[in-house]
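Q: I have 307 residues here and want to know how they pack in 3D. Can you give me a structure?
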Amino acid sequence: MQLSTRHLLGIKDLTQEDISLILSTAEQFKEVLQRPVKKVPSLRDVTIVNLFYENSTRTRFSFELAEKRLSADTINFAASTSSAAKGETLLDTVRNILSMKVDMVVMRHSASGAPHFLSQHVPAAIINAGDGINEHPTQALLDAFSIKESTGGLEGKKIAIIGDIMHSRVAQSNVYLLNKMGAKVTVCGPPTLIPKYAAEAWGVEVNYNLKETLEWCDVANVLRIQLERQNQPLFSSLREYRISYGINRQLLDSLQKEIVIMHPGPINRGVELDSDVADSKQAIILQQVENGVAVRMAVLYLLSGRN
C-alpha cells in the first residue's frame, strides 16, 4: 500500500486510509525499536535534510533519530547558523541543498504555508515539521498512535484538547485527524484563546469549563500557553490561568473516573500541568516522545517510495 500524497504537508491532505497506513506501519517500526539492534536498512542511500528555521528540541531530535534508525544519510540545517542569517531566501537555500542530490526535506518554519510553497518549487518530498500556527502533522499522528495504544482505538473516543487553541498548530492537526478517524472532540480554554469559528469550522464542541470537560473526556491533550505567538495580552496572568485551567492532582482525584493525560511538550510545569500530574501513571507524555520516533520512521519510509 502507498500514501495518496507524495508530501506530508498537513493532516488536512490525508485520507482516513493514509492515516491508518501510517499508524499500522508505525506499529511495525515500534517493534524494531524494542530490539537490541534498533537499526534497519530501509532508507539506505536516501539523503534527507532537516531544515529548521524555528527552534525545536523534541521534533528535531525525533526526526534525526528516526532517520538514523532507517539508515538514511542526513544533513542538519539551522537557519541561525546558515546563509539564511545573511539574507538568503528560502527558495535559494533549498535549491542549493537540492543540488547536493537530496531526496527528502523535513521542514519547520515560522510562516504558515512555507512547506506548501516549497513543495510547488522543488522535486524532493517535503515533510512539514510545523509551519506557523497552521499544522504539525507528525505530532497529531504520534498523538493518535499514543491514544490508540492507551485506549484501544480512536473511533468513538472522547478527546479534550485543552489550553491555547488559538495559536496551536498541534490543536488544529489533532482536530483534523481525530474527526477523520471518528473520535469526538471538545476544545477547552479561556474564550480569548479559542477561535470564534472553532465549533462551526472544525466540527468540535467548545467548553470553557475545565472540570466539566475533564468529567466528559477519556483523554485530555493539554497544550501550553504560546506567549511567543501572542502579540497582545489575552488573559490576566499565568497565575489566573493556572487557577481556572491548570490541572492538578486534587482536580484529577475529584473526577468520577481515571483519564489519560497527554502533552506535546514543552511543559510549563505549575501552569497547565502540575508536576504530580505530569509525572503520574495517568500521563503518557514520555510514551508520546517514544512513539514519535516510530511514527516519523513510518512517515519517512512511506514517502520514500521504498515500500
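Q: Anything worth noting?
A: The chain has two domains: 11-135+289-304, 137-285. The mean pLDDT is 93.
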